Amino acid sequence: MTAVVDPATEETIAELESAGVEETDAAVARAKAAFPAWRAVAPAERARVLRALATLVEEHHEELSRIESRNVGKPIAGARGEVAMVAQVFHFYAGAVDKHLGETIPVAGGVDMTFREPLGVVGLITPWNFPLNIASWKLGPALACGNTVVLKPAELTPLSALRLAELALEAGIPDGVVNVVVGKGSVVGQRLIEHPDVAKIGFTGSTEVGREVMRGAAGTIKRVTLELGGKSANVIFADADLERAAAAAPYAVFDNAGQDCCARSRVLVEKSVYDRFLDALVQATRAVRVGNPLDESTEMGPLISAAHRETVASFVEQEPAFQGEVPEGPGFWFPCTIVEARETDRIAREEVFGPVVAVIPFCDEAEAEAVRIANDSNYGLSGSIWTRDGARALRVARAIDTGVLSINSNSSVRVSTPFGGFKQSGFGRELGMHALAGYSEVKNVFYSTE
Ligand code: NAD
After folding, report:
1. pLDDT per residue as tens digits for the range 49-93
2. Cα 283 to middle of ligand 1, angstroms
3. SS3 of 55, please?
4. Which residues line ligand 1 (CB under 6 A)?
5. Any catalytic annotation for residue 336?
């Protein structure tokens, strides 16, 4: 049995059997058996059951939010926002089922047309930071395209996925279409990657494990999409609305206790306003409310585990410019931490995945220097640009090698817009209509008219 722990209290909140290879194979077999009937379901009916699932998530909004809050240690207000997004994702993909169109292509001697065919059984492997949200980003398009799925949630946070699978059955999604297997990445995840009957792996997690997924998938030429780590830059030009940028910056890195692939954990500030911005950032960070995740006003909870807290702490090698307070007693707490850094420091280069931000000045040719530092990373997931000069904002946005950028905002994720990485942040896109390409194959059919 594996204990599932509340990271804010260190109490065991559930005990689950950890599945092995045999259970994984059984889930794949069920998904395989369910595939022919599910792919043949009329589009309107597939849309109807996905919409029913969206409605059930809305009806169970508070229950799912509390499960997520307790299992991940995330503030209840944030968990509510995430669960609301899960419902929106299923609504969106219900609407997408009959809008994922083929083409007719002008050719000689007949009619040429394309179809978007489902892949078959897809394996979905998800991390612990946004368990239900990220599961829905994969389940929505996978099911809309007519695939059946085996979902492996992270060992630390399996509870919301299990509840969602029950709701999927209640919504009328046929038995065997959605399967959840709880177990270790090195056992269940590995088996899904190698399994000959799994056509694709949709993976979100660390870049390190992403490499394993790619390697393992080579054996069966499996399709993969990889949503991996990040070290995103928040670029502040001197002509920005500095008060607004500074007030927003803490939430761009301390949300979810920094355990966010889109965290703007590098703040690049034009030298002429560096001191002023740093002061304002410290003031805004002082105001972040850290405490019991189930308190309505809490803005930051604990880290996921004691082991992860040790990793995060190991990154803070220099004296912080600011470090906040954490509650006493049990819980894997780590304070909001601001570090003044050079672009070459480890803290400015590696993903910390905790509430630690590196602030770095840039000068000289401000625009070129900002772009150079922003791009000096193996990652390229997200980022922000703050300036009142619209043309500069777009020039810099085009020049930064990253999948998702915001101008005068720190948001990264919307239901209807593509999300994913450049460079070692991965490839493939989730959300929006773009995600459908990752869960279907294009088939070309020629019909002779001669
Ligand atoms: P992780 O890579 O340790 O684990 C992710 C999943 O992979 C888990 O379900 C785990 O059990 C499984 N896994 C581990 N080893 C495996 C193996 N050998 N074979 C198959 N599966 C295996 O990541 P994590 O610690 O759960 O999550 C944090 C990481 O996820 C961070 O790097 C973060 O940036 C990244 N992340 C990326 C995105 C994105 O969309 N780009 C979103 C959230 C998190």
Report:
1. 999 999 999 999 999 999 999 999 999 999 999 999 999 999 999
2. 33
3. helix
4. 125-130, 134, 152, 154-155, 185-186, 189-190, 193, 204-206, 209, 212, 227-230, 261, 351, 353, 381, 421, 425-426
5. no
Catalytic residue among 227, 299, 367, 430: 227
The tokens of 31 are what? 């998904």
pTM of the model: 0.97
> Given the CA of residue 381, which atom of ligand 1 is nearest to it?
41
Per-residue pLDDT for 364 more than 80? no
Ligand 1 pocket: which of 82, 134, 209, 429 to mutate (most atoms within 8 A of CB): 209
Q: How many CB atoms lie within 10 A of CB 220?
A: 14
Tokens of 369: 């220097």
CA distances from 257 to 4, 128, 130, 310 (A): 19, 13, 12, 14
Residues 246-281 have pLDDT tens digits of 999 999 999 999 999 999 999 999 999 999 999 999
pLDDT, tens only, 278-307 = 999 999 999 999 999 999 999 999 999 999
Annotated catalytic residue 261: yes
Residue 29's H or E segment, with its range, is: helix 21-40
